[in-house]
Structures are given as structure tokens and as C-alpha cells.
Amino acid sequence: MDFNLSSEDEAFRRELRDWLDANLPESERIPPVDFMFEENAEQWQRRLRWHKKMHAAGWVGISWPKEYGGRGASLIQQLIFAEEMSRACAPRLVNTMGIMMVGPTLIHWGTEEQKKRYVPKILSAEEIWSQGYSEPNSGSDVASLQTRAVEEGDYFIVNGSKVWTSDAQHADYCILLVRTDPSAPKHKGISYILVDMHSPGVTVRPLVQMTGASGFNQVFFEDVKVPKKNLIGEKNRGWDVAITTLMFERSGVGENRDLSATARELARLARQIEINGRSAWENSSVRQRIAQFATEAAALKHTVARQLTRRLRGQQPGPEGSITKLFASELNLRMNYFAMELLGPYGQLSYRAPGAIDEGKWSVRMLGSRALTIAGGTSEIMRNIIGDRVLRLPRD
Q1: Which pLDDT tens digit goes with each residue over 130-180?
Q2: Are residues 166 and 96 in contact, defined by beta-carbon separation less than 8 angstroms?
Q3: Terminal CA-to-CA distance of the chain, rounded, Å?
């Protein structure tokens, strides 16, 4: 891949940077603590307003087709967008699940009617989406799901429960994996449907984490009626659609984590901390650790760019996304643990506690970073996928 940007891509970067400089006040430029941090209703509404402002200016759905409300730009420009948003410390857009996974899956698998109905409202955040995959008794084996959907006239009647459902408390819709043929092998009798979260029989219960955040939820479905027109792909062959969503999710986790910025933050932290009366930055072993993190973050960035080749050919993401997902989540974890080593006793102070260095954001990041090694597929599952589908290693 040629890493030199074209004149068109450079113009796109300048246009976006100028727009952010003109529309994002310095008071709103706050480096994100982590997606696991506690967010109140006012913070959510502020991000929602920011999302709608960016959408109105044409900055949401950068690489999505114009006929569905996107900008129709290249995937390279999608990466530039992520870099510039990070540079500007811009607030995260809402509808993460919809933009990262649902929209791309519908564009790939949906009927024309489904695309026109749902995709534009994902971009505008008129409809917020969540993902209904994991179940309380399934662990990492998603295909062992037990949520059932029984046909009744023009509807599926859904009963069961999903867990670790991000943004379900805000969601208007959910992509749901259900078992429609209990007698089929576990990967065969699954269907992929779209569920209105405001339907009678849907109950959302928050799951409070160590950070105090409750962005994860458990969702219960009790005799929920879902129109058959909400089926994506073929009945009983939803696993094919589900894999597409997972590939977009795993590649998105790696693509959307700018860990070079975290390495720079660690360097600033090291200059604030003293070790034996001297700045931690003066300690060569500290500088060496941070340099190693910066090197790995740069390698991750280039690996993400390399896997774009597949997407630029018009193909859906492949198992290579598992590499960036694994590496990004594990590197993020190690960087946050190192920050806690630097902080020493200050690391015990909670977020925004009096006297906390950097407002105590590192403790929140440390507590939340383990979740990234689980969400979207555990690190163990990622290693299995890489060994099996990328390296072609024998299974035994």
C-alpha cells in the first residue's frame, strides 16, 4: 500500500480540520476518558447535539454511499476522519453500534427497501442501535444462543435474554440473533432480525461496572412481536450475516483506537510525576517503556492501513480484523497499567477526586480497559481465529 496521501485526501484533511477548528470550541475539546466511563443524561444529550451538528455538515458516514445519506468518500478518508477527530479531542459520536456495525451490515445484506428505511436514520442518529448477540449462558460461544423466535402469521414471537448490550438504554432498535430452528446444528438454525426496542415485552436492565458506568445492559424479550420483513438475509442462515457484523466490529475496534495519542499522554504524565525527587521522564527506563508503546501504536496504525486493501477491493472485512482488535485491546491494557505504575499511590484516587492527577482519568481507563479484551470477542477467541484462519495452524 502507498501511504502517501493524494492531493484529494490532503484537501479532505484540510477541509475537516478547518471545519473542526471553526465549530468545536476549546471548552469542548476534552480527551475522552474511555467509552466505559460514567455518562449522565446531560453528557449524552451534548454528544447527541454534536452528532447532529456533524451530520448536518456532512461529516457522518464518511465512506457510506451517498444514496443512503453518506458522504461517498474513500476508506482512506475514513481513516483521516478518525485521525482528525482524535487530534481535535472531539466528542465521540453517538450511535457507535449503528455506524460501526449495523449500517455496513445492512448495506451488504439488506434489501433495497431495508437500506432506504434504516441506513439514513442511523447516520442522523434519529434511531439509535444496539447489538443483541451475547447471552448469559453462552460465554464466548455466540452460536450456542437460546433466544427463540417462533413464526406466527406475519411475525416472529421472540423470547429470551441478551447481555452486555451496549447502549441498550438509549436504543430504538437492536440487531438480534435468534434461534428459529432448534433442531438444526447450532450454526445453522439462527436468524438475524431487527427488533424495535420500544415493542411491548422488551425490558432493559443496566449492568453497573467497576467504573460506575452502566453502558452495558441485560435485555429481556417476553413474547415480543417482530415483523417478518425485519429479517436480514435468509431465515436459518443468519450466522452468515452475523459473521459480517463481527468482522466490521472487530476491524472497527482496531481502526478507532488512536493509541499514539495515548502514548503522548503517557509522556506528559511522566513529566508531571516525580520519582525519588526527579521527574519520571528523566528515568531512562520510563522513556524506553513509553517509546516502546509509541512504536507499537505506530505499527498498529500501519497494520490497520494494510488491511484496508481488502476493503478497497470491495470485499467485507476478513479475519485480519482480529489481529488489530487483539493488538489494540492488549496494548491499551498495558499502557493503562503502566500509567498506574507511574502514579503510584495517586492511582488509588477515583475519577475527579480532589488531588487526583489528570482528574483521575487513568484509574477509570485502567478499570475499563480490561473490558476491551472481552467486548467484540475475547482475546482468547481472537488468538484462535488468527491461528486458524490467518496462520492456518492445526487445531490440535
Answers
A1: 999 999 988 778 889 999 999 999 999 999 999 989 889 999 999 999 999
A2: yes
A3: 35
Helix/strand/coil for 82:
helix
Contact 178, 156 (CB under 8 A): yes
Residue at 198 is within a domain:
yes
Q: How many structural domains compose the chain? A: 3
pTM of the shown model: 0.84
**Is residue 218 included in any domain, yes or no?**
yes
> Active site includes 249?
yes
pLDDT reported for residue 254: 45
Give the integer Cα–Cα distance in Å for 378 and 384: 10
- Find the domain containing 22 and state its range: 7-94
Count Cα atoms within 13 angstroms, Cβ side, for 170: 23
Cβ atoms within 10 Å, residue 389: 13
In the set 249, 255, 265, 296, the catalytic residue is 249
**Total residues belonging to the chain:** 396
Domain closes at, from 194, 210, 240: 240
Q: Which contacts (CB < 8 Å, 24+ apart) does range 275-282 have? A: 280/342
Q: Is residue 110 situated within a structural domain?
A: no
What CATH number has the domain bearing residue 18?
A: 1.10.540.10
